[in-house]
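Section 5: illustrative case.
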Protein backbone atom coordinates (compact mmCIF):
# COMPACT_ATOMS: atom_id res chain seq x y z
CA UNK A 1 0.00 0.00 0.00
CA UNK A 2 2.96 2.28 0.32
CA UNK A 3 4.37 1.67 -3.16
CA UNK A 4 3.14 4.88 -4.76
CA UNK A 5 4.24 6.93 -1.80
CA UNK A 6 7.66 5.32 -1.95
CA UNK A 7 7.99 6.03 -5.67
CA UNK A 8 7.07 9.67 -5.12
CA UNK A 9 9.67 10.02 -2.42
CA UNK A 10 12.32 8.51 -4.64
CA UNK A 11 12.27 11.52 -6.95
CA UNK A 12 15.46 13.37 -6.19
CA UNK A 13 15.23 17.12 -6.18
CA UNK A 14 17.99 19.70 -6.05
CA UNK A 15 17.70 23.35 -5.06
CA UNK A 16 19.63 25.71 -7.34
CA UNK A 17 20.33 29.14 -5.85
CA UNK A 18 21.23 31.54 -8.63
CA UNK A 19 23.79 34.32 -8.27
CA UNK A 20 23.46 35.69 -4.75
CA UNK A 21 26.75 37.52 -5.28
CA UNK A 22 27.16 40.75 -3.30
CA UNK A 23 27.15 42.72 -6.54
CA UNK A 24 23.59 41.59 -7.31
CA UNK A 25 22.23 42.58 -3.92
CA UNK A 26 21.40 46.15 -2.80
CA UNK A 27 24.62 48.20 -2.53
CA UNK A 28 26.37 46.07 -5.15
CA UNK A 29 27.56 47.12 -8.61
CA UNK A 30 24.38 45.72 -10.16
CA UNK A 31 22.21 45.62 -7.08
CA UNK A 32 18.68 44.31 -7.59
CA UNK A 33 16.03 46.11 -5.54
CA UNK A 34 14.70 43.82 -2.83
CA UNK A 35 17.32 41.18 -3.55
CA UNK A 36 18.17 40.88 0.14
CA UNK A 37 14.51 40.21 1.03
CA UNK A 38 14.72 36.68 -0.39
CA UNK A 39 17.65 35.55 1.80
CA UNK A 40 15.56 34.20 4.72
CA UNK A 41 13.33 32.22 2.35
CA UNK A 42 16.32 30.87 0.40
CA UNK A 43 18.00 29.75 3.64
CA UNK A 44 14.76 28.15 4.82
CA UNK A 45 14.51 26.17 1.57
CA UNK A 46 18.18 25.16 1.65
CA UNK A 47 17.81 23.88 5.22
CA UNK A 48 14.64 21.91 4.51
CA UNK A 49 14.48 18.15 4.07
CA UNK A 50 13.10 18.61 0.56
CA UNK A 51 16.40 18.59 -1.28
CA UNK A 52 18.94 15.87 -1.93
CA UNK A 53 21.43 18.49 -3.09
CA UNK A 54 21.74 22.27 -2.77
CA UNK A 55 23.86 24.11 -5.33
CA UNK A 56 24.62 27.83 -5.52
CA UNK A 57 25.77 29.46 -8.75
CA UNK A 58 28.25 32.32 -8.55
CA UNK A 59 28.82 34.86 -11.32
CA UNK A 60 32.60 35.08 -11.66
CA UNK A 61 34.27 37.33 -14.24
CA UNK A 62 37.74 38.42 -15.23
CA UNK A 63 38.61 42.17 -15.21
CA UNK A 64 37.79 42.84 -18.86
CA UNK A 65 34.86 40.45 -19.21
CA UNK A 66 32.83 40.71 -22.41
CA UNK A 67 29.62 41.40 -20.43
CA UNK A 68 31.03 44.71 -19.14
CA UNK A 69 30.13 46.21 -22.54
CA UNK A 70 26.47 45.63 -21.58
CA UNK A 71 26.51 45.88 -17.79
CA UNK A 72 28.61 47.79 -15.25
CA UNK A 73 31.68 45.81 -14.16
CA UNK A 74 30.47 43.25 -11.61
CA UNK A 75 31.46 40.02 -9.90
CA UNK A 76 35.14 40.48 -10.70
CA UNK A 77 37.04 37.43 -9.47
CA UNK A 78 38.70 38.02 -6.12
CA UNK A 79 36.65 41.10 -5.17
CA UNK A 80 34.08 41.40 -2.40
CA UNK A 81 31.38 41.98 -5.01
CA UNK A 82 32.03 38.54 -6.47
CA UNK A 83 31.60 36.80 -3.11
CA UNK A 84 28.30 35.16 -2.26
CA UNK A 85 26.34 37.33 0.20
CA UNK A 86 27.11 36.73 3.87
CA UNK A 87 23.37 36.37 4.47
CA UNK A 88 23.33 33.17 2.45
CA UNK A 89 24.01 30.37 4.93
CA UNK A 90 26.65 28.33 3.12
CA UNK A 91 26.37 25.59 5.75
CA UNK A 92 23.35 24.41 3.78
CA UNK A 93 25.01 24.67 0.35
CA UNK A 94 26.76 21.53 -0.89
CA UNK A 95 28.42 22.90 -4.03
CA UNK A 96 29.14 26.20 -5.75
CA UNK A 97 29.23 26.37 -9.54
CA UNK A 98 31.00 29.37 -11.05
CA UNK A 99 29.80 30.82 -14.34
CA UNK A 100 31.07 33.45 -16.75
CA UNK A 101 34.72 32.72 -15.98
CA UNK A 102 35.79 32.76 -19.64
CA UNK A 103 36.85 36.34 -20.39
CA UNK A 104 35.20 36.44 -23.82
CA UNK A 105 32.06 34.33 -23.24
CA UNK A 106 29.17 35.24 -20.96
CA UNK A 107 26.99 32.73 -19.14
CA UNK A 108 23.62 33.89 -17.83
CA UNK A 109 22.74 30.24 -17.34
CA UNK A 110 24.20 28.20 -14.52
CA UNK A 111 24.27 25.22 -16.88
CA UNK A 112 25.91 26.31 -20.15
CA UNK A 113 27.74 29.39 -21.36
CA UNK A 114 26.70 31.23 -24.50
CA UNK A 115 28.91 28.96 -26.61
CA UNK A 116 27.13 25.94 -25.17
CA UNK A 117 30.05 24.80 -22.99
CA UNK A 118 28.97 23.21 -19.72
CA UNK A 119 29.74 24.89 -16.39
CA UNK A 120 29.60 21.42 -14.80
CA UNK A 121 26.18 21.76 -13.17
CA UNK A 122 24.34 19.25 -15.37
CA UNK A 123 27.06 16.66 -14.80
CA UNK A 124 26.99 17.20 -11.04
CA UNK A 125 23.21 16.76 -10.90
CA UNK A 126 23.37 13.69 -13.12
CA UNK A 127 26.07 12.08 -10.99
CA UNK A 128 23.88 12.63 -7.93
CA UNK A 129 20.80 11.11 -9.60
CA UNK A 130 18.84 14.37 -9.51
CA UNK A 131 15.79 14.45 -11.78
CA UNK A 132 13.99 17.56 -10.53
CA UNK A 133 15.17 21.05 -9.66
CA UNK A 134 13.71 24.03 -7.85
CA UNK A 135 15.33 27.31 -8.88
CA UNK A 136 15.52 30.51 -6.83
CA UNK A 137 17.68 33.65 -6.78
CA UNK A 138 18.56 36.63 -8.93
CA UNK A 139 17.56 37.79 -11.43
CA UNK A 140 14.22 36.38 -12.50
CA UNK A 141 14.44 38.03 -15.93
CA UNK A 142 18.09 37.10 -16.64
CA UNK A 143 20.07 34.36 -14.95
CA UNK A 144 17.14 32.60 -13.23
CA UNK A 145 15.31 32.50 -16.56
CA UNK A 146 18.34 31.24 -18.50
CA UNK A 147 19.12 28.62 -15.86
CA UNK A 148 15.52 27.38 -15.72
CA UNK A 149 15.16 27.09 -19.49
CA UNK A 150 18.48 25.23 -19.75
CA UNK A 151 17.42 22.92 -16.92
CA UNK A 152 14.47 21.80 -19.05
CA UNK A 153 15.82 22.04 -22.58
CA UNK A 154 19.48 21.24 -21.97
CA UNK A 155 19.57 18.99 -18.93
CA UNK A 156 16.10 17.43 -19.32
CA UNK A 157 15.07 18.07 -15.70
CA UNK A 158 11.61 18.62 -14.29
CA UNK A 159 11.96 22.26 -13.31
CA UNK A 160 10.14 24.68 -11.05
CA UNK A 161 10.92 28.33 -10.31
CA UNK A 162 9.83 29.51 -6.86
CA UNK A 163 8.95 33.16 -7.40
CA UNK A 164 8.77 34.08 -3.72
CA UNK A 165 12.50 33.41 -3.52
CA UNK A 166 13.43 35.31 -6.72
CA UNK A 167 13.80 38.97 -7.60
CA UNK A 168 13.95 40.56 -11.07
CA UNK A 169 15.84 43.50 -12.55
CA UNK A 170 12.92 44.81 -14.64
CA UNK A 171 15.07 47.15 -16.77
CA UNK A 172 11.89 47.69 -18.78
CA UNK A 173 8.43 47.33 -17.23
CA UNK A 174 7.06 43.90 -18.09
CA UNK A 175 10.45 42.15 -18.31
CA UNK A 176 9.66 39.81 -15.43
CA UNK A 177 6.21 38.97 -16.81
CA UNK A 178 7.78 38.25 -20.20
CA UNK A 179 10.44 36.08 -18.58
CA UNK A 180 7.75 34.09 -16.79
CA UNK A 181 5.96 33.54 -20.11
CA UNK A 182 9.17 32.41 -21.77
CA UNK A 183 9.92 29.96 -18.96
CA UNK A 184 6.40 28.52 -19.05
CA UNK A 185 6.59 28.12 -22.83
CA UNK A 186 9.80 26.13 -22.34
CA UNK A 187 8.04 23.85 -19.85
CA UNK A 188 9.14 25.39 -16.56
CA UNK A 189 6.54 25.26 -13.79
CA UNK A 190 6.19 28.64 -12.07
CA UNK A 191 5.26 28.56 -8.39
CA UNK A 192 3.88 31.95 -7.33
ZN1 LIG B 1 27.80 38.63 -14.96
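Designed sequence:
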Amino acid sequence: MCKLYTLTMEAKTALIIVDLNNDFLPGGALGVTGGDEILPRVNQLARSEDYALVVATQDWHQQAHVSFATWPAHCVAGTLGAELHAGLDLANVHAVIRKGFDVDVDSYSGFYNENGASNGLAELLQTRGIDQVDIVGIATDYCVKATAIDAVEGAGLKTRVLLDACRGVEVNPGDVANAINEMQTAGVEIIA
